[in-house]
Structure to design on (221 residues):
Protein backbone atom coordinates (compact mmCIF):
# COMPACT_ATOMS: atom_id res chain seq x y z
CA UNK A 1 0.00 0.00 0.00
CA UNK A 2 1.29 3.45 -0.85
CA UNK A 3 1.25 6.18 1.78
CA UNK A 4 1.98 9.47 0.04
CA UNK A 5 3.32 11.81 2.71
CA UNK A 6 2.19 14.81 0.65
CA UNK A 7 -1.43 13.76 1.32
CA UNK A 8 -0.99 12.84 5.00
CA UNK A 9 -1.11 15.28 7.95
CA UNK A 10 2.09 15.50 10.02
CA UNK A 11 0.71 13.58 13.02
CA UNK A 12 -0.14 10.62 10.80
CA UNK A 13 3.29 10.64 9.13
CA UNK A 14 4.69 10.35 12.65
CA UNK A 15 2.60 7.20 13.21
CA UNK A 16 3.94 5.54 10.07
CA UNK A 17 7.54 6.38 10.90
CA UNK A 18 7.55 5.28 14.54
CA UNK A 19 5.71 2.06 13.80
CA UNK A 20 8.15 1.02 11.08
CA UNK A 21 11.55 2.50 11.96
CA UNK A 22 12.08 0.10 14.85
CA UNK A 23 13.66 -0.72 17.20
CA UNK A 24 15.07 2.68 18.08
CA UNK A 25 17.67 3.14 20.82
CA UNK A 26 16.65 5.38 23.70
CA UNK A 27 18.57 8.44 24.85
CA UNK A 28 17.85 9.12 28.50
CA UNK A 29 18.93 12.73 28.56
CA UNK A 30 19.92 14.67 31.65
CA UNK A 31 20.19 18.44 31.30
CA UNK A 32 20.09 21.46 33.58
CA UNK A 33 18.55 24.89 33.23
CA UNK A 34 20.64 28.04 33.70
CA UNK A 35 19.93 27.92 37.45
CA UNK A 36 21.13 24.32 37.72
CA UNK A 37 17.65 22.73 38.05
CA UNK A 38 17.93 19.13 36.87
CA UNK A 39 15.82 17.59 34.13
CA UNK A 40 15.60 14.11 32.59
CA UNK A 41 13.65 12.83 29.60
CA UNK A 42 13.57 9.85 27.23
CA UNK A 43 14.05 10.24 23.47
CA UNK A 44 13.95 7.50 20.86
CA UNK A 45 14.46 9.75 17.85
CA UNK A 46 18.08 9.08 18.66
CA UNK A 47 21.20 7.53 17.26
CA UNK A 48 24.96 7.92 16.75
CA UNK A 49 25.91 9.43 13.40
CA UNK A 50 29.65 9.73 13.31
CA UNK A 51 32.57 8.09 15.06
CA UNK A 52 35.16 10.74 14.28
CA UNK A 53 34.10 13.23 15.44
CA UNK A 54 31.89 11.27 17.85
CA UNK A 55 28.40 12.69 17.22
CA UNK A 56 24.95 11.72 18.47
CA UNK A 57 21.63 13.30 17.46
CA UNK A 58 18.27 13.54 19.23
CA UNK A 59 14.95 14.77 17.87
CA UNK A 60 13.33 16.77 20.67
CA UNK A 61 9.77 17.90 19.94
CA UNK A 62 7.54 20.46 21.68
CA UNK A 63 4.98 20.10 24.48
CA UNK A 64 2.69 22.26 22.36
CA UNK A 65 3.27 24.54 19.37
CA UNK A 66 5.90 27.10 20.31
CA UNK A 67 6.80 25.42 23.64
CA UNK A 68 9.83 23.18 23.10
CA UNK A 69 10.35 20.36 25.59
CA UNK A 70 12.46 21.31 28.61
CA UNK A 71 15.38 19.19 27.40
CA UNK A 72 15.70 21.30 24.23
CA UNK A 73 15.34 24.59 26.13
CA UNK A 74 18.07 23.53 28.58
CA UNK A 75 20.46 22.27 25.90
CA UNK A 76 20.01 25.45 23.86
CA UNK A 77 20.67 27.63 26.92
CA UNK A 78 23.57 25.71 28.49
CA UNK A 79 25.09 23.82 25.53
CA UNK A 80 25.57 20.68 27.63
CA UNK A 81 23.79 17.38 28.31
CA UNK A 82 24.37 13.73 29.19
CA UNK A 83 22.92 10.85 27.17
CA UNK A 84 22.40 7.78 29.36
CA UNK A 85 21.47 4.48 27.70
CA UNK A 86 18.53 2.44 28.98
CA UNK A 87 18.88 -1.19 30.04
CA UNK A 88 16.09 -3.63 30.94
CA UNK A 89 16.80 -2.88 34.60
CA UNK A 90 16.20 0.84 33.95
CA UNK A 91 12.88 0.44 32.12
CA UNK A 92 10.41 1.46 34.81
CA UNK A 93 12.45 4.40 36.05
CA UNK A 94 12.93 5.63 32.48
CA UNK A 95 9.17 5.54 32.05
CA UNK A 96 8.69 7.70 35.15
CA UNK A 97 11.12 10.33 33.86
CA UNK A 98 9.06 10.49 30.64
CA UNK A 99 5.97 11.70 32.53
CA UNK A 100 5.02 15.15 31.21
CA UNK A 101 5.83 17.02 34.43
CA UNK A 102 5.62 20.79 34.54
CA UNK A 103 8.83 22.81 34.05
CA UNK A 104 11.23 22.68 36.99
CA UNK A 105 10.29 19.19 38.30
CA UNK A 106 13.38 17.03 38.88
CA UNK A 107 12.46 13.77 37.14
CA UNK A 108 15.52 11.99 38.57
CA UNK A 109 14.21 12.57 42.06
CA UNK A 110 10.70 11.48 41.06
CA UNK A 111 12.09 8.19 39.72
CA UNK A 112 14.43 7.62 42.68
CA UNK A 113 17.52 7.80 40.45
CA UNK A 114 21.01 8.72 41.61
CA UNK A 115 22.81 11.61 39.91
CA UNK A 116 26.60 11.20 39.70
CA UNK A 117 28.96 14.08 38.83
CA UNK A 118 30.12 14.29 35.22
CA UNK A 119 33.73 15.02 34.31
CA UNK A 120 33.51 17.31 31.26
CA UNK A 121 30.02 18.85 31.58
CA UNK A 122 27.86 20.26 34.36
CA UNK A 123 24.76 18.03 34.11
CA UNK A 124 25.22 14.79 36.07
CA UNK A 125 24.88 11.28 34.69
CA UNK A 126 22.53 8.59 35.98
CA UNK A 127 24.35 6.09 38.22
CA UNK A 128 21.87 3.30 37.40
CA UNK A 129 22.44 3.54 33.62
CA UNK A 130 25.18 1.22 32.26
CA UNK A 131 26.49 3.76 29.73
CA UNK A 132 26.56 7.55 29.91
CA UNK A 133 27.87 10.00 27.33
CA UNK A 134 28.83 13.52 28.30
CA UNK A 135 27.91 15.76 25.36
CA UNK A 136 28.47 19.32 24.18
CA UNK A 137 25.97 20.93 21.83
CA UNK A 138 27.23 21.30 18.24
CA UNK A 139 24.07 22.53 16.55
CA UNK A 140 20.28 22.44 16.75
CA UNK A 141 18.68 21.95 13.35
CA UNK A 142 15.20 23.47 13.26
CA UNK A 143 12.65 20.95 11.93
CA UNK A 144 9.55 22.96 12.84
CA UNK A 145 8.10 21.73 16.14
CA UNK A 146 11.08 19.39 16.55
CA UNK A 147 14.68 20.45 17.02
CA UNK A 148 17.37 17.99 15.94
CA UNK A 149 20.05 18.31 18.59
CA UNK A 150 23.55 17.34 17.43
CA UNK A 151 25.94 16.66 20.26
CA UNK A 152 29.63 15.91 20.34
CA UNK A 153 30.46 13.17 22.80
CA UNK A 154 33.26 14.37 25.08
CA UNK A 155 33.45 11.35 27.37
CA UNK A 156 31.78 8.00 27.92
CA UNK A 157 31.25 6.16 31.20
CA UNK A 158 30.69 2.41 31.08
CA UNK A 159 30.06 0.34 34.21
CA UNK A 160 33.18 -1.78 34.83
CA UNK A 161 31.30 -5.07 34.58
CA UNK A 162 30.55 -4.38 30.88
CA UNK A 163 34.14 -3.56 29.87
CA UNK A 164 35.78 -6.66 28.35
CA UNK A 165 39.13 -5.11 27.47
CA UNK A 166 39.73 -1.48 28.36
CA UNK A 167 43.00 -1.20 26.39
CA UNK A 168 41.28 -2.28 23.16
CA UNK A 169 37.96 -0.53 24.00
CA UNK A 170 35.97 -3.78 23.82
CA UNK A 171 32.54 -3.61 25.44
CA UNK A 172 30.32 -6.59 26.24
CA UNK A 173 27.35 -5.27 24.25
CA UNK A 174 24.91 -8.18 24.79
CA UNK A 175 25.50 -7.99 28.54
CA UNK A 176 24.33 -4.33 28.54
CA UNK A 177 20.80 -5.63 27.81
CA UNK A 178 19.80 -2.30 26.30
CA UNK A 179 16.20 -1.61 25.32
CA UNK A 180 14.85 -0.47 21.98
CA UNK A 181 11.61 1.38 21.47
CA UNK A 182 9.07 -0.26 19.19
CA UNK A 183 5.70 0.86 17.83
CA UNK A 184 2.97 2.70 19.71
CA UNK A 185 3.46 4.43 23.01
CA UNK A 186 4.33 1.49 25.23
CA UNK A 187 6.14 -1.24 23.27
CA UNK A 188 9.80 -2.06 23.73
CA UNK A 189 12.25 -4.66 22.45
CA UNK A 190 14.98 -6.49 24.32
CA UNK A 191 18.33 -6.85 22.59
CA UNK A 192 18.85 -10.45 23.65
CA UNK A 193 17.73 -12.25 20.47
CA UNK A 194 20.94 -12.08 18.44
CA UNK A 195 22.43 -13.83 15.44
CA UNK A 196 25.78 -13.45 13.76
CA UNK A 197 26.35 -12.87 10.05
CA UNK A 198 29.95 -12.20 9.01
CA UNK A 199 30.64 -9.73 6.18
CA UNK A 200 31.38 -11.33 2.81
CA UNK A 201 34.74 -10.45 1.23
CA UNK A 202 34.24 -9.41 -2.42
CA UNK A 203 36.65 -12.14 -3.61
CA UNK A 204 34.61 -14.84 -1.89
CA UNK A 205 31.38 -13.51 -3.44
CA UNK A 206 32.85 -13.45 -6.92
CA UNK A 207 34.17 -17.00 -6.57
CA UNK A 208 30.76 -18.18 -5.39
CA UNK A 209 28.73 -16.44 -8.10
CA UNK A 210 31.26 -16.77 -10.92
CA UNK A 211 31.36 -12.99 -11.49
CA UNK A 212 34.67 -12.29 -13.24
CA UNK A 213 36.68 -9.58 -11.52
CA UNK A 214 37.33 -6.54 -13.67
CA UNK A 215 41.01 -6.33 -14.52
CA UNK A 216 42.93 -3.54 -12.85
CA UNK A 217 40.34 -3.02 -10.09
CA UNK A 218 41.11 -4.12 -6.57
CA UNK A 219 38.26 -5.38 -4.39
CA UNK A 220 37.38 -3.49 -1.22
CA UNK A 221 35.13 -4.62 1.61
C1 LIG B 1 10.69 5.58 25.25
C2 LIG B 1 10.30 7.00 24.98
C3 LIG B 1 10.82 7.65 23.87
C4 LIG B 1 10.49 8.99 23.62
N1 LIG B 1 11.03 9.60 22.53
C5 LIG B 1 10.80 10.90 22.31
C6 LIG B 1 11.42 11.56 21.22
O1 LIG B 1 12.19 10.98 20.45
N2 LIG B 1 11.17 12.89 21.06
C7 LIG B 1 10.35 13.58 21.91
O2 LIG B 1 10.18 14.79 21.73
N3 LIG B 1 9.75 12.99 22.96
C8 LIG B 1 9.96 11.67 23.18
N4 LIG B 1 9.36 11.04 24.27
C9 LIG B 1 8.54 11.83 25.19
C10 LIG B 1 9.39 12.59 26.21
O3 LIG B 1 10.17 11.69 26.98
C11 LIG B 1 8.49 13.39 27.16
O4 LIG B 1 7.78 14.35 26.43
C12 LIG B 1 9.26 14.07 28.27
O5 LIG B 1 8.33 14.52 29.23
C13 LIG B 1 10.06 15.26 27.79
O6 LIG B 1 10.69 15.79 28.91
P1 LIG B 1 11.18 17.29 29.02
O7 LIG B 1 10.04 18.24 28.75
O8 LIG B 1 11.65 17.32 30.44
O9 LIG B 1 12.29 17.47 28.04
C14 LIG B 1 9.62 9.70 24.51
C15 LIG B 1 9.09 9.03 25.62
C16 LIG B 1 9.40 7.70 25.85
C17 LIG B 1 8.83 6.99 27.03
Amino acid sequence: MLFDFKEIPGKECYKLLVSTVTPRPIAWVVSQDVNGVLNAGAFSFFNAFSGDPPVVAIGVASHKPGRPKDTRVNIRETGQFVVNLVSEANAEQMNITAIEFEYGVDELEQAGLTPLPSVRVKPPRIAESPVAMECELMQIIDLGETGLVLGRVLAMHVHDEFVLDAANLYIDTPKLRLLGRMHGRGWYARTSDLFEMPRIPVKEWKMKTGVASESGKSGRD
